[in-house]
From TrEMBL:
The keyword Membrane applies. The chain crosses the membrane at residues 20-40, 45-63, 69-90, 102-119, 145-166, 173-191, 211-237, 257-278, 298-316, 328-348, 360-378, 385-404, 410-429. It comes from the Bacteria. It comes from Arcicella rigui. This is Beta-carotene 15,15'-monooxygenase. Keywords: Membrane, Transmembrane, Transmembrane helix.
Amino acid sequence: MDLLSKGKPSFNIKITVINVYYILCSIFGVNLIFLGGTWLSKSGILANASFSTQFIVVQFNLLEENVTASWYSSMLYFITGIIAFFCYLIDSQKAKNWSDKSLNAFWLVVASIFFLLSFDEMGTFHEVIGAASFMKKLGEGDNTGWFVFHTSSTVVGVLLSIFIFLKFKQYPFLLAINLLAVLLLLSSPLQEQFELNLWRSSLNQETWKRPLILIIIEKGTETFASFFFLYTFVMYLKKKTKIMYMGKAMLSMDFTFIKYFPIYLIALLIALGVLMLLTFYFPWNVSGRSYFGLPQNWFPAIVSIYCSFISLYFEISFKKKLGFLRSIYLVLAVLSILSSAYFGSNLYYYRATQLDQIRLLILGANLVLGIILIIEFNGSTIKKFLSAWLIIFIISLLFPPGFYTTFLAYIAYACLLIALYLHFQRLLYLRDNYE
């Protein structure tokens, strides 16, 4: 059966309002846990603790790069960008005139902003933009890069505030929370600059330490700014899509894939792969760049976590009568999230330690699951993409740690994403076999 010739598939997302609040409360709680981990890691209480204890605690330190905390912050921005994209799709369905369509298109800009913030959170580009060689070519010293950064941040903040006012003016509470989030987000580089000035004015710069309270305020500002955006965007969707179904308040969203969506999907994945290569080979040439985030970790992290979202959607929306495949979807979702955290937290670098057991566990679990998926999923094209995912992913885990470990992992999960889309089409065509 030619899956690409069946027209434009559609899908529906339904989730109860109470579950939405549960998810938001859980994210709020996780934010507090990471802030607590940041305080615990920087307070010095565990200075004499074992290496394993300190390593676990540092994973919750929002100040550190290439740890679970930085991965979580990046994914929070990424999810916010996805929600902003859903807002665009919902508003586009109801736009009736040119002005509404033009305003709604800015949702795409908002989504792009959060995707870039997600990328920057894991790659830490803005911290080194002043020292980047290509920025220095535009002017003398570090000032040109920082001028470009602060100017662009201000312009983005102003445009974002105008858009938020126009979109949320009929919802005063959400408008206030959104504008607060903008102010918090824009204050972050100012706080960094304030701390830099404190360091420069200190009597002994070599022994100077950042005040713990300023660290907590700065990281709390960034973390809860992204949460506030996520909260207001979700509440906006609630107001636009809320229905009553079987006595329960639910968010119900119906979407139709655009024509030639598979081609656009493959083109996007190729473009991201090229961007990944450019990011690695582009001459940032910043002294000490290795002490900052590794941007290549972002690419396998976002694709694998996106695969987990799709798997969860399958788990909720398609209930096979025998129930076997449904359990596979949940396992695939969990393993995809773990893979995202594994690469996003840079854990693949720890080969000569006991942490290498994590790699072996992920490898074994995905090997077993991959074989089951290849056997259970129908369609030769789907099986080929699943086989490519499994083989390339295993190679990436066996590959020496470095850039090409992440590049292979990205290619692997890109193959899985395509396989899941084709499988989704097949699920739609075989809907009669599902309850």
